[in-house]
């Protein structure tokens, strides 16, 4: 059940840097896909092209819901349903967890809405998202008072507040210790499973990919070198 397809899609950066060779891949509804590869392999480029944060220079991205991402309207609609989680969370450090989650929600409202008082249902949704990542009691704590793992969980709550059908996470645990990384990845996978959210996560640790992924896409030198369930990677390796 296709959710998003890249079709002969490739990315060449200015200066003729080939970051992703033209390739065709279907991302399926509800699947938890890990992009695995060393630094420079092209993971981030592929991930960001999925919502046109990076503009493909060949081929195209097709959303099952909205069609070809070949115009601003379609890209905007697709982005409104696609949440991002970053390595360095990109939260506002001196704001509270709750404020950060609300900001994520309001970013997708039109300008005139942001001038009105906060609707109660937005507040309730934001609190509910913090509850789901186990941080209900930290709603009013400032980001800079939270641990790295807690900050990343706020990042996940902010993504959830967007009520996405897809989550793109670029190296979400790269700056966390192993125990915290496992907790954060487990949480992200469980939430995506519960809500039927399609997830694409870039990682560079094979162990985490094998433990959490439904599907692993291996990248090396701007090319997909592997695309299969984790069990197959074990044999292959
Ligand atoms: P990864 O996420 O696997 O580390 P990237 O997608 O970030 O890989 O990078 C793939 C290749 O593209 C690398 O050779 C990198 O140096 C290059 N690259 C990434 N971003 C840019 C950019 N904005 N301009 C030029 N080259 C880039
Ligand atoms: P290593 O032997 O250290 O795994 P490789 O060059 O074989 O180094 O792998 C490069 C990267 O791709 C590593 O991050 C590794 O985890 C991952 N990887 C290893 N085997 C495969 C495979 N069969 N397909 C895709 N990625 C792989």
TrEMBL record:
Keywords on record: ATP-binding, Cell inner membrane, Cell membrane, Hydrolase, Membrane, Nucleotide-binding, Translocase, Transport
UniProt-listed Enzyme Commission number(s): 3.6.3.28
Stated name of the protein: Phosphonate ABC transporter ATP-binding protein
Origin species: Marinobacter flavimaris
Classification lineage: Bacteria, Pseudomonadati, Pseudomonadota, Gammaproteobacteria, Pseudomonadales
Entire-sequence positions represented here: 8 to 244 of 279
Membrane topology term: Peripheral membrane protein
GO cellular component assignments: plasma membrane
Stretches that traverse the bilayer: none
Subcellular localization: Cell inner membrane
Record GO terms (molecular function): ABC-type phosphonate transporter activity; ATP binding; ATP hydrolysis activity
The ABC transporter domain, residue ranges: 4-237
């Amino acid at each position: 059940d296709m959710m998003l397809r890249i079709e002969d899609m490739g990315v060449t950066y200015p200066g003729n840097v080939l970051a992703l060779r033209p390739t065709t891949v279907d991302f399926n509804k509800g699947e938890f896909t890990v992009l695995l590869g060393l630094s420079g392999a092209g993971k981030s480029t592929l991930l960001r092209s999925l919502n046109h944060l990076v503009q493909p220079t060949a081929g195209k991205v097709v959303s099952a819901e909205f069609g070809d991402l070949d115009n601003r309207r379609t890209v905007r609609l697709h982005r409104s349903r696609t949440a991002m989680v970053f390595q360095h969370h990109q939260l506002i450090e001196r704001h509270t967890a709750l404020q950060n989650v609300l900001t994520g929600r309001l970013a997708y409202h039109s300008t005139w809405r942001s001038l009105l008082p906060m609707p109660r249902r937005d507040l309730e949704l934001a609190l509910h998202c913090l509850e789901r990542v186990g941080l209900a009691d930290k709603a009013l704590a400032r980001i800079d008072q939270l641990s790295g793992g807690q900050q990343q969980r706020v990042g996940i709550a902010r993504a959830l507040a967007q009520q996405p059908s897809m989550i793109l996470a670029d190296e979400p645990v790269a700056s966390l210790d192993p125990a915290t990384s496992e907790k954060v990845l487990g949480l992200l996978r469980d939430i995506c499973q519960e809500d039927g959210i399609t997830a694409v996560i870039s990682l560079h640790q094979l162990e985490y990919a094998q433990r959490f992924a439904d599907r692993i896409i291996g990248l090396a030198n701007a090319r997909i070198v592997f695309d299969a369930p984790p069990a197959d990677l074990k044999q292959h390796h």
